[in-house]
Amino acid sequence: MKNVQREDIHIISRHSNLQEQSVDKALKENVYNNKTAWQQFFRLLFLSLGVGFTVAGIVFFFAYNWADLHKFAKIGLTEGLLIAATALVFLPRISDTTRNIILTGASVLTGVLFAVYGQIYQTGANAYDFFLAWTIFVTLWTWVSKFPPLWLLYLVLVNTTFILYYQQVANHWSPAFMYALLFIMNTGVLIGTMIFARRKTPDWFLHTVALAATTYATIGVVSGIFGKSQIAFPFLILATVVLFALGIWHGRKTRNGFYLSVIPFSIVIMLSALLIKISDGEMMLLLVSGFIITSVTLIIKNLIHLQRKRIHENERTGN
Amino acid sequence: MKTKEQVTELLTHFRHAGDQTMEFDEEAILAAYQKNKSSQSLAIKILSIFGGLLASLAFTGFLFVSGIAKSEEVLLGLGIISIIGSLWMNQKQDKIIMDTIRVSAFLMGFTLLGVGLAELDTNESIICSVFIMLSCISLILTRNYILSFVSVLILNGSIITLLICNNAYNLIPIYTAVLALATTYFLFKEARIITKIRKRAGSYDPVRAGLVCALLSALILTSQSGIYPVSPAYFWLCAVIMIAAILRLTPELSGILEITTTGHKIMIYLFVVLSLLPTVPSPAISGALLVMLLSFLRNYKTGFVLGVLTFIYAVCHYYYDLSFTLLTKSMLLGATGLLFLIIYLYTHKKLMPDENV
Question: Does this model's pTM top 0.90?
């Protein structure tokens, strides 16, 4: 019989005299990870730890202030390591995952190269142009590898560059404009990935990007409600309304509970903030408390309804 | 949810799988599936907890702003009523959509009780002891997923606060080690536990989630050794217990990976001990690794992801805190990295090439 889940074993055990050995056997055969999964786990664990620690060692090596080392030697050494790591990617007998993990290591080394440059020419470790250069020079690898962890690193770099640019150069931008920009950019990546690379992209990547985008919208709108008037705020509201509506539509269409819980919960927080902005008296706090309970309960009810619908559909199609 | 036919097929499968003497209550099983038909997804659980937390904050704010909560007696009364009410609601109406109200009332109850007792100048140890007692009672009484999970977290938080309030900092690593042993037993002996507590087997999942979260939070606390004074010997003892727990998993792992030769088994034991020995000053590393391995062993995905995140945090913190020069740290990190790469190259032929991330 296929598809025996942990829940089935627990329920049957609860209402039967099934012995410990039988339960253990059923769990091992149907629920617990098998030999193949463990082999894959150890391969990835050793490789990730190996590449991660080695790259961290290199980062620390260059973070050490080598006063006696000539600047050409410093940059030459880093570039040498970078070339060596990239050359490894071209080895013919390695798997795609190994290749991508090495490429991710090389992308971190690119950051080390610019950090060494910054150390020599005193540009500062948090200068936005350091992150901008790092982002630009790993773009091609990120695009070629199509490796979700590298894409995530790339997105972190893009977001960091934007935030630092706002803090260091464009400080005339309003916070609402900045949040709107980050929200639209991350949502754009999410939509682009869904359209062009949905099948190859794992859910954890999409959910992480969606969560980041929703967090920007939530913080932006809440700080806009409590902060002083900003021209970009209506624009942020408009973007939030349109993209959230799109997200809910997608969630309903694909029966994906993630979008149907994260987006409505963000709206609940925004509306609660608006209510408290209108009045922070006792009755409003009571109203907000009731509003949160009612709305979250409705969201959960909708999620349960969706779950049941999916189960019935699966039963009908025999999956 | 499964249909009647699917349940019958499932029971036949279990009989054929080896337990010919198996007796079961088909009606009760079908009823359990019916009751469980909207089994909670992770999204629903997280929504219930955060929704409950926000609502309880707003309601507590209302009580204070309106002046209702000015008197200590009212605070204590409302706190106790909220806790009892949330547990009672659970007995009467065990629907998932009621979870937000239950969690909200439960958390608000503990908050009001804590503030009420503090206003009465009650000793902090007594407040913690009351919380420990109440969370234990709640854990025994409730059969609700979220309330069981939150009770374990309150129990853990109260024990840690009790230790901190009494300046018993040395006991924090000891408590963490005990928690690690309890979590290991709980996950490792899943079959034994659910057959021993048959009627309460529904509590297994939330208690497991609570234990893993409690252990990880205790491990993060042990990695903040600079904040409170602890004798290093206690950290070492804690780490040794963590390593011993990892060694306890090794025979089962060897079985799964079909490693039968004694030489290989000894090599694995030696590798585990030697690679974890340098991390003895930071039990958070071996502890997070223990959670990762245990969760992967039992295919508990949430625990595994949380374990990986804590492991990365613990390793970064460990190297950041080391009082060596950057060059020495670089050597240590580079050597560790190379060691893992050599192990990878040595073992990779034995491990399947078929993989995808």
Answer: no
